[in-house]
Amino acid sequence: MLWPGVVAALEVREGDLLFVTAGRSGLSAAIDDATGKQGAPSFDHVALAAATPNGWEVLHADEKGSRRQSLVQFRQDARAKQRQIVIYRLRAPQQAAIKDAVATARTMLGKPYNTSYVLNEDSYYCSDFIERAFRAHHVFALQPMNFRNPQTGQIAQHWVDLYRGMGMDVPQDQPGTNPNDMSAAPALQRIGVLE
After folding, report:
1. What digits encode the pLDDT tens for the residues 128-150?
2. Nearest to 89, CA basis, from 180, 191, 192, 195
3. What backbone torsions phi and psi does residue 2 show, to the nearest 5 degrees?
4. Spatial separation of the C-alpha atoms in residues 189 and 185, rounded to whole Å
């Protein structure tokens, strides 16, 4: 029994999406600069919670590639970077997609991280990994990628330099995903901060 005013700790469920709050520098700040919404929570990473016989794991794509990680380690990494993890859960109509999405995500493990964010079959970035896991059920939609700051209309120097180094133009308006837009998808409901 809980005492009045005491809130039970949040519990992760199979298929929950774990969004990590954005940092203030480097790639994290550049993602937030281009995709953040004023007055809304700002995220630079998203991962999928999955059950195993040994406890919870997180399936995701980060700078180390498409991989599985224990939920404990994922939380420790977020804490070490002074970031919060916010749980979002699929609404009832989309929950039927969870079993397939987790199975699909497991088949995508081992691929490298996609540093160009241009969709391809050989590498993934975080929200691309999640969108593909749920793609067969049409849970999330691809949309034109934005690298411009919404207030200034300018593409941050971080992106110009990154793509110049790859011998590419900034892929403004090419199809893609990002954690901020994904967190606002109608299929999801915010559950709360994972402590």
Report:
1. 999 999 999 999 999 999 888 88
2. 191
3. -100, 140
4. 8
